[in-house]
Here is the input.
Amino acid sequence: MSGKPKVGIFGFTGCGGCQLEILDAEDKLVDLASAVDIVHFTEAITEHSDDYEIALVEGSISTNHDVERIKKIGSIAKIIVAIGACACTGGLNCLKNLYGVEKAKELVYGDKKDWIDAIETRPIDEYVKVDYYARGCPPNRFEILQIVKALILGKKPEIPNYPVCVECKRLGNTCVYDLGMTCMGPIARAGCEARCPSNGSGCEACRGVIDEPNVNAQKDLLAERGLTVEDIMEQFNLYNACKKLV
Amino acid sequence: MKEKESKKTIYVPDIAKITRIEEVTPTEKLFNIVFEEPKKQEEFSFKPGQFVELTVFGVGEAPFSITSNPNNKEYFQLCIRNIGNVSGALHRMKEGSKVGIRGPFGNGYFPYEKMKNHNVLIIAGGLGLAPLMSLIRYILDSRDDYKEIMIIYGAVNPASILYKEDIGEWCKRDDIRVCLTVDNPDDKWTGEIGVCTNLIPRVDFPPEDTKVVVCGPPVMYKYVVQELEKKEFAPEDVYLSLERRMECGVGKCNHCHIGNKLSCVDGPVFSLWEIKNLKEAI
Amino acid sequence: MLYKILPRDSYQSFVENLIRNFDFIGPKRKDKATHEFTKITSFGELDLSYKKTTIPPAKQILFPSTEEIVEYRREDNSIEFRPVVEHSLKLLFGVHSCDINAINFLDKVFSTDFSDDNYLSKRRNMVIIGTDCEPRETCFCLAMGKEYVTAGFDLFLSELTNRYFVRVATSQGNKLIEKYASGISSAGEKDFKEYNEKIGDFRKKFKLSPDAKSFYDNFDLIYNDEEFWKKVAKNCFSCGSCCLVCPTCFCFNVRDEIELNLKEGKRIREWDSCMIPEYGLVAGGHNFRPTKENRLKQRYQCKLKTFVDKFNTYACVGCGRCIETCLANISIASDIDSVRKEVTV
Here is the structure.
């Protein structure tokens, strides 16, 4: 990529927190703004443009309108980076699918349900080709910056495909299992600097799972620590219901 | 106390300049490289089969085999396929750009001394010709020291054949036999079709008077070795260059280990006998 | 080796002197489950009764999990690389025999073929004082021949009745004890006798006794038994924890980090593990160890065979950390036994 690449930042179904995470990069934000041209930023810039090379996309696809918009982005952007759990794995929004769309609409909107344009929630890569993933809920702002830097340099960003345990050990953390808690760390994708275990709670796999998760061993492990089948399903589905691991 | 020392560590590259870039196939380019320090360039000597660790600023470092003739003191040459981060960045660089170089590394090289006064059979698959070029160029400089030389080279398709000019020159000579084959021929291809392994049965060198060197993609070795064994070449006389993931090049990061050997310091060239005694080698 | 006696009433002031005069790193309680080696500022913080540290004491200092090794800078078309080497003096107190044996192993790794100054400069500036320990359920250093250490430390303190038996391995250690301890005397016949008994009793306390020699002898024979290795690795998460907590594991990755201005950057090495799928992956896409059973087998080979051939020592000191950390309940000690049960030549 030569010159300053044009970047668009887009939001879909989600809380908008991922875009705030980029805004939170504070001192680095100035550097970022000087390294790329941000032409579209839903949460921060009012004017918008349809001329961009890199699209940073947050949120999951859960309405027919979303589908149209993401396809348009897919037709314009050369590189799409999915940002945050909702865009990468469908995130918490996928829990809706477990009820079935009609049932979920009824539970939330009652007799107004037919006004709602809702479909089964999906991560964005079910509609467009995603080049890179900045995973997590919230995503790691430094990782987003790493990816942007790598794209400027024309290199493939190094995104971990190892589990959270690796980061815990590098940090010297006491295993949260030794502290009497449970954790999805052994199959959850790292890159968050083991944020939750470092702060005394188990990992919930908000960054999705590694390429080859040992799902059976994780089930055994949780069962061994006294979790019921329902509890185990809940742990697996919280951020990864769309993946249908269990 | 973190010190920025002047004393170099094994991890600090020397600065070098890309003096020439030549596109040889749609995916491979040749890079001629010269050290910025004239003294370093003068001292830099290597053996066929050795490699360097090359840094592209901001991107990272990766190992590449040297393809030039060790007798060439003006520059050294790398043949690089656009396949990873570092190689991709290199492919976007221009002549005159600076890179970092550490090396040469590898104590296991193609044993040109042991080949003297013997027939030499060279088997290359794809990009595997690159490190072997260094050997071929070197032994052709003192052609009389060797008996017959036969080169078997297999490429995926005619467009991916490397060093076409050199191969053309060899074909004109009557003191080298060249057997070229491609997996996927185009309309114009009139030569051999198939993998290079298919050509080994034609080799008529007496096994007791022949040294064999092989370099190619990991999947090739098992089949080449089977064919060579049918010809009864002794495992001590067959040498293979083994590619592994390398991070440091100096025997520390351990990624390239094969049993109790490290490809970076003990190899990358091993005899087939050594390889037979290593698990997971081929 | 010199053998000296430190009276119990001089012990605290000796340690306090060391705390005052050195960057003193020792075991301190971290939480209800573990201790960690960290900066100690007062005698009371030091807890030598520690049983478990997640990360071995010296590894994080000598070979940190993330370490800058080169910094670089670019101006127009000129680039510059500079080494980054850290070597401040540190005193490590309360290290157990197994962990000192592990340091001795790493010393060999980082000084063979090429000298790694990033490790060795820190090692040269490290004072090590060993202390004795009580075996845990998962300890098998005795079986690995690593329960006793004869080099690699400056002083080694063993507690006897009312006194400490001090082994002095270096002149630096001798200077420390002469300068900072009072009431030092040479060990006599009675001291040696009690010390000898103590070591003898210690050796009787181990519950695990895997036969590592039999693994070495039988490994080739079971190497191709896919069913066996599948069984052994069935629950493996490929999470790498066993390697990362291992005092002798030293594999690392190298990566570059660059500032957004694209002018300054650094080269970093960080702990890697042969259990992670990407470990054997090359740029062309070929993975030399694609399955978890390949990888676990390779780890055992590295621990129990490779370095016996190379350095004439196991790359396992029997500290048991990998057994304790493994959430899949994989135990190198019981797998050594499984190999022996499967084949015996």
Summary: The radius of gyration of chain A is 19 Å. Chain A touches chain C at residues 28, 31-32, 34-35, 145-146, 149, 152-153, 158, 161-163, 165-166, 168-175, 177-179, 185-187, 210-212, 214, 216-218, 220-221 (CB under 8 Å). Residues 64-76 of chain A form the longest helix (13 residues). The CA atoms of residues 21 and 229 of chain A lie 35 Å apart.
